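Q: I have 156 residues here and want to know how they pack in 3D. Can you give me a structure?
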Amino acid sequence: MLDKTDREILRLLQQDARQSSSDIANSVGLSQAPCWRRIQRLEKEGYIRKTVALLDPQKVGLGTIVLAHVKLSAHGRANLDKFADSIRDIEQVLECYCLMGDQDFFMKVAVKDVYDYEQLFFQRISQIEGVAEVKSTMALSKIKDTTALPLTAPQH
């Protein structure tokens, strides 16, 4: 169960994970050692999965985002697992969700441009066994971009 201080520590880490435990401690009203122990506990308990650097997609040449809905030809567990395993091997696929409803999967894909996506689509995505249909949309602009989860509600 996360208390108010745990949630505040997590909120601060989501803003900037490079902050020292001393700086975080000052912000939440703890001394450094108890704050560091809380951070260690949050990591051990899996609240903090990993600490990463968030790159600018434009600066690394992957400024085009494609959102794709995928429908499989068959819906057995084996088909879903095969698709999921294949997608995990495509590094341009940033996120992939299994869905309820008319479509089976939703993917967020980062590519250089439309031509880069075309190659990825024809050489990799459309070649995955069981793919019946892919509906792709290119994002024109980014309205909101965050990795921070809202932490205001108490955890159960």
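Q: Anything worth noting?
A: The chain has two domains: 4-44, 64-138. The first strand starts at residue 64 and ends at 72.
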